[in-house]
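Reader question, answered in our methods column.
A reader sent in the components of a multi-part assembly and asked whether the whole thing could be modeled at once rather than chain by chain. We filled in our standard form and ran it. Here is what they sent:
COMPLEX SIZE: two components
ENTRIES:
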Amino acid sequence: NAGVTQTPKFQVLKTGQSMTLQCAQDMNHEYMSWYRQDPGMGLRLIHYSVGAGITDQGEVPNGYNVSRSTTEDFPLRLLSAAPSQTSVYFCASSQDLNTGELFFGEGSRLTVL
Amino acid sequence: AQKVTQAQTEISVVEKEDVTLDCVYETRDTTYYLFWYKQPPSGELVFLIRRNSFDEQNEISGRYSWNFQKSTSSFNFTITASQVVDSAVYFCALSEGGAGGTSYGKLTFGQGTILTVHP
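And here is the structure of the entire assembly that came back:
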């Protein structure tokens, strides 16, 4: 059972570089989201999607882009990385939370120098 | 706007002690969902419980129990007879219900409580 798969697990970037964090789920969930985790701040929502072709901003969207061309995939793009984007990133998926839970990937640790 | 507060930043106990992790939430919605997640040192997020706003029954699962009180907007988590394996960061989270009670998985997390259980 793959669940939610994130790649890469670790990445070091220099300021100004771009990269994409990949996220894929095999549970046919409509809803997918990206969170970042920083010490003392819990997890904060970056972007989310309620289905293929539909995305919206969360609490901390600046500096990040997303797209949802398929139900399975929800990549997160950093166009010009900044040190403030050093964090652990979690992708999550869910069906209706009235009946289910939010499933998380294992996380991706990003360091921007 | 919704908000979750976990006032206890760190808790340290000795094995076999009982420990309660506090969670206070704010929301204007009448339909919402409350969660607890555990993050062990390995870093993954482990789902513990989901509770919707219409179900105020307390729940017990083994050594874990949850006390949901709408009157005080609290959803506290108690571990009975704690064990070293309970050492982790624990997050309380809130999701507001959308149209028809559907929730889109947009969780607002508390800051987390670091629990350390000493042998």
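What stands out: Chain B has a mean pLDDT of 91. The radius of gyration of chain B is 14 Å.
Send us your own complexes using the same form.
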